[in-house]
Design the sequence.
């Protein structure tokens, strides 16, 4: 059974930083593409960033240059470093394992507000 647990969310002022973590209970973690998505109130869930098993990385245009995704296969964990946060980054952030799978975490709230 796959379990994904996000942590690291919170309240931060505009321009601040947060680091999200997603710990995965999953066999052969290194074989999975891992992704971060977010959902703001009243909006659809949207892609933020992904990292493949080979280490290829993609970002949404809205976060390029500010967010960095990384993974530690030894710890079965994927990270999202978020810098220069903006109020429009406020959302629940979800971790996803795989591309065609339906393996999602429960989400962690990120609020950017002064």
Sequence:
């Amino acid at each position: 059974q796959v379990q994904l647990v996000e942590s690291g969310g919170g309240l931060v002022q505009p321009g601040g930083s947060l680091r999200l973590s997603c710990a995965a209970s999953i066999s052969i973690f290194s074989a999975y593409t891992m992704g971060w998505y977010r959902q703001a109130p009243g909006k659809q869930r949207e892609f933020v960033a992904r990292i493949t098993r080979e280490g290829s990385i993609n970002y949404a245009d809205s976060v390029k240059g500010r967010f960095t995704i990384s993974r530690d296969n030894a710890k079965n964990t994927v990270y999202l470093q978020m810098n220069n946060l903006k109020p429009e980054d406020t959302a629940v952030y979800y971790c996803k394992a795989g591309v065609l799978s339906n393996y999602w975490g429960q989400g962690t709230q990120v609020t950017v507000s002064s």
